[in-house]
């Protein structure tokens, strides 16, 4: 996924994603660099979202 796609998917700004990459947030949302391109794996984004859920009933 591109920055724009992840931004829209998570309802956060592209600038927030960039801030996360500049800080130690790689642990929060992993990304992949392909040359100058930055890409996110949808499955990794989904995994992070699910791991952060609060109040989930079983």
Lay out the secondary structure.
Blueprint: H1 3-10, H2 14-22, E1 32-34, E2 37-39, H3 42-51
Antiparallel strand pairs: 1-2
Outline of the structure:
The chain has 58 residues and is mostly helical. The protein is built from 3 helices and 2 strands; from the N terminus they run ααββα. It has helices spanning 3-10, 14-22, 42-51, and strands spanning 32-34, 37-39.
Oligomer: single chain
Strand content: 5-15%
DSSP helical segment count: 3
Mean pLDDT: 86
Number of strands: 2
Q: Any idea what the shape is?
A: globular
Major β-sheet strand ordering: 1-2
Ends distance: 30 Å
Radius of gyration: 12 Å
What is the succession of H and E elements? HHEEH
Which bin fits the share of residues in helices? 40-55%
Largest sheet: 2 strands, antiparallel
Question: Which structural category do the helix and sheet elements fall into?
Answer: mainly alpha
Low-confidence stretches: none
Structure characterization notes:
- With 58 residues, this protein is mostly helical.
- Helices cover 47% and strands 10% of the residues.
- It is built from three helices and two strands; from the N terminus they run ααββα.
- A two-stranded antiparallel ribbon has the order 1-2.
- A hairpin with a 2-residue loop joins strand 1 and strand 2.
- The longest helix is centred in the last third of the chain and has 10 residues, at 42-51.
- The protein is globular and about 40 Å long.
- The termini are far apart.
